[in-house]
Write a structure and sequence with these properties.
The chain has 433 residues and is of the alpha/beta class. Helix content is 45%, strand content 16%. Helix 10 links the parallel strand 4 and strand 5. The longest helix is centred in the middle third of the chain and has 17 residues. Bound molecules: uracil. The site of uracil has 6 residues, from helix 9.
Length: 433
C-alpha cells in the first residue's frame, strides 16, 4: 500500500477501508509516513470528512497505537467525564466528589493546560502540597478507598493522537469533526473507564460555535463510545460566557469548594448536578435521572459531597486546612476593578477574551515552559442579562502586577453592553444518548 494512494482516495471523497486507515495510523506513529503526507491526509479529511465507520476505525487504531490503562483492579463500574473545554470550567472538581459521594468510583486522568487558564492538574495544584503524580498502584488504591483520585496522564496513551494533534495544531486541521471526535475519544477509551459522560461546549468560547455543529460532534463521540463498548452520554452546554464567576486556578478551586459547601451558583451547580446524575445512572447507582439528581442535590446540602472532596484532597497530600478556610488559598498581591463605562445591560461576554486576560495575569501558559501563577485570576461581577451602571465593577482582577493594563483592555473588549436587556443564555441545550 502507498500513502500517496490513500491521500488521493480521501481527497476525491471516497470511503477508506480499515486496512488503509490502520496503514496510516501505524505508519505515522512509527515515523514511516512523513509529516508532509500526514498533513495532506488530514487536510483531505478536513474537506471530505469521514463516515461514522471510518471515524470509529480511526479512533480504535489510535487507541491501539499505545497503552490501554488496565483499571480492572478498581471495584465497581468506573465512570469518567470529559469536557471539550471552556473558560471557568471547574465542573470536574464538583462532579468528582458528587459521584464519589454516591459510592461510584471516579478514576480521572487529566492533563495540563496550554493557553487560557490552566488545566485540571494546574488548578488542583493551587492547593499546597497536593500531588498528582502517583504510581498506578496508588491510583487504584485511592480510587478503591476513597472512590476518587485524579492523576496526571501516565504511560503512552494514544501516541498516534499526540503526534497527529500536534501536527493538526500547526496545519489548520484541528477543526474537523471526525478528527476532534477521534482525538478525544481515543484518549478516553485508552484510559480505561467503563462509561463516559461528555460535556460538549457550544458558543463563542467553544470549539464548536453553533448548536448544530456541537450536536454533530456530540453524536459522533457518543456513537464511537457506544460502538466501542463504553456507555456514553453527551451533555451539550453553553459556553457563550464563562461558567460560574471565577476564572483562574485558586479562584476556581475556591468556587468549586463553595458549591460543595452548599453555595448556590446557579449555572455551575446545575451543570455539575446534571453531569454527575448521568454518570451515576450510567454506573447503575440509580434507576432514573430524577432519582440521581435528587440524591446528589441532597449530598450537596448534607455535606457528603464536601466530605468526599476533603478526603480526596487529604489522600493526595493536599493541605486540607486551605479547603476548610478558603481564604488561605494562594492569593494575588493586588485587586483591580475594571469598571463599566456605560449604562445598560450585559448582552455578551466573550469567554475566550476573558480566558486570554487571565492568561496575561499568569493564570495560564502562553508556552509549554511557562509557570502557572496559582493566585492570580478573574472574578466576574456581571454576567449576561445583568444591568450595569457607569462606575460599577464588571470584573475584579487578582493580579501580581499593579496595573495589568493588557488584561484590563482584554476584559473591556470581552464585554458588550447595550441598552436593551437580553435573557441569560440557557445553560443545557441538549442531552445526546
Ligand atoms: N481536544 C483534543 O484532545 N483533541 C482535539 O482534536 C480537540 C480538542
Amino acid at each position: 500500500m502507498r500513502m500517496y494512494d490513500v491521500i488521493v482516495k480521501k481527497r476525491d471523497g471516497h470511503e477508506l477501508t480499515k486496512e488503509e486507515i490502520e496503514f496510516f495510523v501505524e505508519g505515522y506513529t512509527k515515523g514511516e509516513i512523513p509529516d508532509y503526507q500526514a498533513s495532506a491526509f488530514t487536510m483531505a479529511i478536513y474537506f471530505q470528512s469521514m463516515t461514522e465507520k471510518e471515524t470509529a476505525i480511526l479512533t480504535q487504531a489510535m487507541v491501539d497505537s499505545g497503552e490501554i490503562i488496565d483499571l480492572s483492579g478498581i471495584e465497581g463500574h468506573i465512570v469518567d467525564k470529559h469536557s471539550t473545554g471552556g473558560v471557568g470550567d471547574k465542573v470536574t472538581f464538583i462532579v468528582g466528589p458528587l459521584v464519589a459521594s454516591a459510592g461510584i468510583p471516579v478514576a480521572k486522568m487529566s492533563g495540563r493546560g496550554l493557553g487560557h487558564t490552566g488545566g485540571t492538574l494546574d488548578k488542583l495544584e493551587a492547593v499546597p502540597g497536593l500531588e498528582i503524580e502517583m504510581s498506578k498502584e496508588d491510583f487504584i488504591y485511592n480510587v478503591n478507598k476513597h472512590k476518587l483520585a485524579v492523576a496526571g496522564q501516565t504511560g503512552n496513551l494514544a501516541p498516534a493522537d499526540k503526534k497527529l494533534y500536534a501536527l493538526r495544531d500547526v496545519t489548520g486541521t484541528v477543526n474537523s469533526m471526525p478528527l476532534i471526535a477521534g482525538s478525544i475519544m481515543s484518549k478516553k477509551l485508552a484510559s480505561g473507564a467503563d462509561s463516559i459522560v461528555l460535556d460538549v461546549k457550544t458558543g463563542s468560547g467553544a470549539f464548536m460555535k453553533t448548536l448544530e455543529d456541537s450536536e454533530a460532534l456530540a453524536r459522533e463521540m457518543v456513537n464511537i463510545g457506544n460502538n466501542l463498548g463504553r456507555k456514553t452520554v453527551a451533555v451539550i452546554s453553553d459556553m457563550n460566557q464563562p461558567l460560574g464567576f471565577e476564572v483562574g486556578n485558586a479562584n476556581e478551586i475556591k468556587e468549586a469548594a463553595e458549591i460543595l459547601q452548599g453555595k448556590k451558583v446557579e449555572d455551575l451547580r446545575k451543570l455539575s448536578l446534571e453531569i454527575a446524575s448521568h454518570m451515576t445512572v450510567l454506573a447503575g447507582a440509580f434507576e432514573s435521572y430524577e432519582e440521581a439528581y435528587h440524591t446528589l442535590e441532597q449530598n450537596l446540602e448534607n455535606g457528603k459531597a464536601f466530605k468526599a472532596f476533603r478526603t480526596f484532597i487529604e489522600a493526595q497530600h493536599g493541605d486540607v486546612s486551605v479547603i476548610d478556610d478558603l481564604s488561605k488559598l494562594p492569593a494575588a498581591k493586588h485587586v483591580i476593578e475594571v469598571l463599566a463605562e456605560e449604562n445598560g445591560y450585559v448582552t455578551a461576554i466573550d469567554a475566550e477574551s476573558i480566558g486570554v486576560a487571565a492568561m496575561y495575569l499568569g493564570a495560564g501558559r502562553a508556552t509549554k515552559e511557562d509557570r502557572i501563577n496559582h493566585g492570580v485570576g478573574i472574578t466576574l461581577n456581571k454576567k449576561i442579562g445583568d444591568s450595569v451602571t457607569v462606575g460599577e465593577p464588571l470584573v475584579i482582577l487578582h493580579s501580581d502586577n499593579k496595573d495589568a493594563a493588557d488584561s484590563v483592555e482584554k476584559v473591556k473588549e470581552a464585554y458588550t453592553i447595550s441598552s436593551e436587556k437580553v435573557e441569560a443564555p440557557s445553560l443545557i441545550h441538549k442531552i445526546i444518548k
